[in-house]
Amino acid sequence: MPLSLWYSKQQYIADHLTCLSVVQIDAYFEEDLMRSLDIYRQSSSENNTDIKKDFDTVQHLFRCCGVHGEADWKGDTPISCCTEDPCNTLNPPNWPEGCLVKLRDWFASNYVSTGAGVVTLFIIQ
């Protein structure tokens, strides 16, 4: 078997494994976001404050609402989804796009710096 054909097969396999890994990571990421949203929705105001703060921060900074959209909140949309500041609490306009897409896009555009930061932390440890 010529070396170039062997390399092509190896590259093909590596590309497909990478693609499968990305799909799996994306699915886990979506599951974790949905789990966090469910915990947020089912908690009283004094419970799980870290999850609530984190989710509210993501929604505010990334201008998104829910995981897939406002419907994820099932009628109990938090004020962090509101597009206006201060927010009109009577029928407020909310961000139309879900946070999964926004976060995925952010990680895709920042993967080099994010990866470099992770590698640096591992080296320091």
UniProtKB/TrEMBL annotation:
- Report the locations given in the UniProt record: Membrane
Identify one Gene Ontology CC term for this UniProt entry. membrane
Keyword set, alphabetical order: Membrane, Transmembrane, Transmembrane helix
- Keyword Iron included in the entry's annotation: no
Q: Give one Pfam family.
A: Tetraspanin
Please classify the protein's predominant subcellular localization into one broad category: membrane
What is this entry's stated membrane topology?
A: Multi-pass membrane protein
Q: Which SUPFAM superfamilies match?
A: Tetraspanin
Superkingdom is Eukaryota
Check the UniProt entry and state the signal peptide residues, or none.
none
Q: What is this protein called?
A: Leukocyte surface antigen CD53-like
Where does this protein come from, organism-wise?
A: Notothenia coriiceps (black rockcod)
From which lineage does this chain's organism come?
A: Eukaryota, Metazoa, Chordata, Craniata, Vertebrata
